[in-house]
Design goal:
Order of helices and strands: EEEEHEEEEEEEEEEEE
Helix content: under 10%
Number of domains: 2
Distance between the termini: 12 Å
Number of helices: 1
Shape: globular
Structural class: mainly beta
């Protein structure tokens, strides 16, 4: 499976940044006030909203904004054809797990989806970009495993029953843009901005 393109890192990105976990829940209310609830999602859809205070349209006038950063962002959106294509977004605050226990072996299962814990919530990650270490029962495994895109750790031999499977790895969110249009505003010569850029995660597996 070929990795989608990566969202560009641009010097002109501003604050604030919005990151919203979203669930889908069916709630049926009774006249007594009791409720029946059904969760449609095991894991949330993540919604992001970024702003870009400065995007330079040339290479010389505003080097602090990044040379031709306007073309970089605009071209990336065009490459994705708006919401049609997917891309990888590396959240600066949520992109790596260290010694993360992802499962316990049962002696038969050889494939495990890599996940990271956020507080007490364990969630499958969207797309693993690198695996630094894999452990079984606390012992580092130099071989005998492989990474299958987007996020699956596969062992040549199923880990023993009860053996904790851990990993240190980096990851990104697989996303798509939310809107079929993006508004770029020029407010100075050769200098542009984007007040709101929205995208959301998609299920990769």
């Amino acid at each position: 499976m070929t990795a989608p393109p990566s969202f560009p890192t641009l010097a002109g990105q501003g604050f604030s940044v919005h990151k919203t976990p979203t669930f889908s829940t069916i709630v049926a209310s009774h006249v007594s006030g009791r409720e029946a609830r059904e969760a449609n999602y095991q894991n949330p859809i993540w919604r992001f909203e970024l702003t870009f205070d400065a995007l330079a349209s040339n290479a010389a006038s505003y080097p602090g904004a990044g040379a031709q950063s306007l073309q970089s962002l605009m071209g990336f959106y065009l490459q994705c054809r708006g919401p049609y294509g997917t891309f990888l977004y590396t959240d600066p605050t949520d992109n790596a797990a260290v010694n993360q226990v992802v499962a316990a072996g049962d002696g038969a299962t050889a494939s495990f989806t890599l996940a990271r814990s956020l507080g007490g919530f364990l969630e499958s990650v969207g797309w693993v970009t690198n695996v630094a270490q894999v452990t079984v029962g606390g012992v580092a495994q130099g071989s005998g495993w492989s990474l299958v895109a987007p996020n699956t750790l596969v062992f040549a031999t199923a880990p023993a029953s009860g053996a904790l499977i851990g990993a240190s790895f980096s990851y990104a969110f697989q996303c798509r843009f939310e809107d079929d249009a993006m508004d770029f505003e020029q407010f100075m010569q050769n200098l542009w901005r984007v007040d709101s850029l929205k995208f959301r995660s998609v299920r990769s597996s």
